[in-house]
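Working notes for the structural subgroup meeting. M.R. asked for a predicted model of this chain before we commit to crystallization trials. I am recording the input and output together here so anyone reviewing the notebook later can reproduce the run.

Input as submitted:
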Amino acid sequence: MTDSEHHPADSSRRAFLSDLGMGFTGLALGSMLADEGIVNANESEIDFPPTGTLHHTPKAKSVIWIFLSGGYSHLETFDPKPALNKFAGKTFDETPFANPMNSPLHKKRFRSVPAEEVNVRDVYPTIYPMQVGWKKHGQSGIEVTDWWPYLARQVDELCFVRNMWTTDNDHAAENQIHTGRHRLDPQEPSLGAWAHYGLGTLNENLPKFAVLGGPTRSDTRLSIDSLYLGPQHAGVPLTLDPKNPLPFGQRQKAQSLESQRAEYELINKLNQLTAVEYPEDQELVARIRSYELAFRMQAAVPEAISFATETDATQQLYGLNEEGTKLAGSRLLAARRLVERGVRFVQVFPSTYGVWDSHRKLKENHTRLCATVDKPVAGFIQDLKQRGLMEDVTVVFCTEFGRTPGLEKRSGGTTGRDHHPNGFTIWMAGAGIKKGHVHGETDELGYNALGDAHYVTDLHATVLHLLGLNNRRLQIPGRKRLDIDFGNVMEEVLT
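Returned structure, recorded in token form:
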């Protein structure tokens, strides 16, 4: 049964609003209703197209998703394992624990692109010891390694999820944690694109889905892509150069503002003439809006990413006065400024592509890399807290997979860990999230995620739920989504 058969009066009203102003009034109305927290009544319906009206009362207005590319070691960050030191140099079979590679969980969470007989990934049985010390911190007594001294002071604000898992054992997992799909399968839109698709904007002059610092390669573009949802829902990469924050959206030097405005007005008039003939063409409506947004962003974005009004104390809190922390600090401070101005989803890459991938010299690499991120992220959490933004913003801190408990011996390696999809750790904080909490665990050696462990789309479902969206209602007719694509809300981490 169709929407109009259920609610003929609503259908007439929607049709009227859609006709008025080529649908802009209806789109704006949906955004305003969402902003005011007005929700739909029937959770089982599919929203197509979405109106921006929320499915349930949200706990968060915005999400800041911090992604560390390359795969940080969960063992040397947020899931330390004493057994690795006790049994260092021994094989899994020489410990009192069951060999984790013989567990059915290993095959379930390990899908290699090379044939199994030639694959050597994630099958290193010789235990490699912890490369750093650790201790308990805060009133919650959560273990964090010594490479995170600043963030350790914020553990009572954080919720660690230690039983995440994925399936791609190579760096296409960077896309997988954002899309939920292994690279051998047909691809799906990214999480940020789904949030963009399902929500109205809180600021008509800025993108709903902004990206800072990435992706920097064509093969990781999927992590912000919208695919069949349409290009209007893809992430908008911004730079932190106030003179050129929109690399592909600035007018030419020889063109005046008045000339560009006239050009955009002409394009819109032509598009609107076409819209009269094709009133149901959602892509055309989106195209008209994109031109309008591109013009408005030229003024709004430079102000949003400018730090001229930020105090010296705030800039020092983020580490902007130190060379090693300036990059991450600048991107995180810009993220805070964007959500303050109503951006719904900000995806932040605080480090460059792949740098956490420590197949060799893990101790050297992680010592240096943690120092570039630790102070800025801790300062970011402190800043959100003191501004009251932890009540409105949900923060996710993640990577694409963990690192192997066993020593990587490929090509004679003696100092690193390989990729490890079978179990790893992320953390969350802010709106709707428990404070000072640890959810889930890996086994004694940090190999397999235990219990009702969470595939990456459980994280997606949780984020969308906090924003007031039911992931199962975000579907496109004719586009098949698997059950695993929807994930399940991680109720255990919610307040």
